[in-house]
Amino acid sequence: MSRATISLPRTVAAHAVLLTYTVIALFPVVVIIINSFKSRNAIFRTPLTPPTAETFDLIGYATVLNQGDFLLYFQNSFIVTVASLFFVLLFGAMAAFALAEYRFRGNTLMGLYLALGIMIPIRLGTVAILQLMVASGLVNTLTALILVYTAQGLPLAIFILSEFMKQVSDDLKNAGRIDGFSEYRIFFRLVLPLVRPAMATVAVFTMIPIWNDLWFPLILAPSEATKTITLGAQLFIGQYVTNWNAVLAALSLAILPVLVLYLIFSRQLIRGITSGAVK
Amino acid sequence: MGSLNIENVKKAFGSVDVLKGIDLEVRDGEFVVFVGPSGCGKSTLLRVIAGLEDASSGNIIIDGQKVDAVPPAERGIAMVFQTYALYPHLNVRNNMSLGLKQIKTPADEITRRVKAASGMLSLEPYLERRPAELSGGQRQRVAIGRAVVREPKLFLFDEPLSNLDAALRVNTRLEIAQLHRRLSATMIYVTHDQVEAMTLADRIVVLNGGRIEQVGAPMELYNSPTNLFVAGFIGSPKMNFIDGTRLGETAKTIGVRPEHMTVDPKSGSWKGTVIHAEHLGADTNLYLDAEQAGLLTIRTFGEYRAEPGTTLYATPDPSRIFRFNDQGRTIR
Question: According to its UniProt record, where is this protein mainly located (chain B) (predicted)?
Answer without folding.
Answer: membrane
